Prior knowledge:
Blueprint: E1 2-4, E2 7-12, E3 15-18, E4 38-47, E5 52-60, E6 66-67, E7 71-76, E8 85-88, E9 92-93, E10 97-103, E11 114-116, E12 128-133, E13 136-141, E14 154-157
Parallel strand pairs: 10-11
Antiparallel strand pairs: 1-2, 2-3, 4-5, 4-14, 5-10, 6-9, 7-8, 7-12, 12-13
Amino acid sequence: xxxxxxxxxxxxxxxxxxxxxxxxxxxxxxxxxxxxxxxxxxxxxxxxxxxxxxxxxxxxxxxxxxxxxxxxxxxxxxxxxxxxxxxxxxxxxxxxxxxxxxxxxxxxxxxxxxxxxxxxxxxxxxxxxxxxxxxxxxxxxxxxxxxxxxxxxxxxxxxxxxxxxxxxxxxxxx
Length: 174
C-alpha cells in the first residue's frame, strides 16, 4: 500500500485500486444475537394512598413473536429470598417490540399493554423484580436477599450495549 494524499492505494493483482479491499478474513468470537426476553425499563415513581407510579418494560430482541404464557414477573420484598407475589403474563410480544406493564393506580396516563393492581407492581426502592421463564429467573433487577435501597424514586433503562438478560443484577447495565 502506498499513501497518496488522503487516500491509500492498494495493489491487487497488479492494479492500483482505491478502497478496493475485498479479501478480508475476520477472526474472533462472533456476536450471537439475543434469544431471550429481558427487562428493559423499570420505574419506581411517586406513591400515595391513591396511586403508585410504577411500571416495567420487557423487550423482545428476537426476530420472532414470543408467546408470553411461559413468562411471569415476581417480586422479592426487602431481604426475602422467596417471591412475595407473582404476575402471570399472557399474549404475544411481537419481534423487536416492548411490552409495558403499569400499576393500575398510576396517574401518569401511560399507554400500557397491561394495567394491573398485582402486588408485583407495588415495589419500592429495595424490592427486587425478576422476569421468569418456566419458573426460572432469566432477568433480575436488584440483588435477591439484601435490603439495600438501590432504585427508589428512579427510572432505570437498560444500556444500549446490553443484549442479554442476566439472573444476577449488575447496576452497570442500567
